[in-house]
Amino acid sequence: MIVIIDYGMGNLRSVYNKFKRMGINCIISSKKEDIESAEKLILPGVGHFKYGMQNLQSFGLIDILIKKVIDEKTPILGICLGTQLFCRHSQEGNCEGLGWLDAEVVKFNVSDRLKYKVPHMGWNQVRHSGQLPIFRDIPDGANFYFVHSYVAHPEDESIIASRTDYGAPFCSAVQRGLLVATQIYPEKSGILGLQLYRNFLEMAAA
Which CATH fold would you assign to the domain 2-205? Predict the structure, then answer.
C-alpha cells in the first residue's frame, strides 16, 4: 500500500487522483499506523518550509518517518515542498529540515527579473543523464510542470537526477537509493509525469 502523507500542506488530493487513475492502491493519511504499514511513501506539499516542518512536528510524524525512511529504508518520493523538507536547512524561515539530504534550500536568485519571474511557474525542460531509474523511458529535455520560489542545492552532485535551466541551472530532482525527490509536479505533467510515478513504483519494488 502507498501512503500519501497528510500533514496539512497542499496538493494531496491531486496526487491521490493520479494514482487511482493508474489503478494503484493508495490512501491519504496522517495516522502513524498507516505510515507504519506502508510499502511506499509519498510526501507532497505546497507552501512555506517552516510551516511544513512545524506541521510534521505537530502531527507527530517526524519520528515515524525517520524510522520508516532511515531505519527501514522504505521507498519515499518527495514532491515540491516535500522535496525541500528532505534537506538539511532552508532559507525560507531560516529553518532546519529533516536532514536526509545534505542540501541547502535557497530562493531563486535571477539576474533578469523581467524575463525570469519568481515564483518559477509553468513548463520547463528537464535535462537528465538517463543513468538513474527515476527517469527511465523519459526523454532527456522533456517538459515538466513547476511552481516554486526555492530550490535545493545538494552538496553531493552524484545524487542529482536532473537539472533545469531558469536563468541558471538548478537541481530539479534527486535520487539516492530509494529516496527520490523532485521539484517537478508529476501530477500536473501529463503522460511523462505518470511515467515518473511508474518509475518510482518499479524502482521501489525491485
Answer: Rossmann fold (3.40.50)
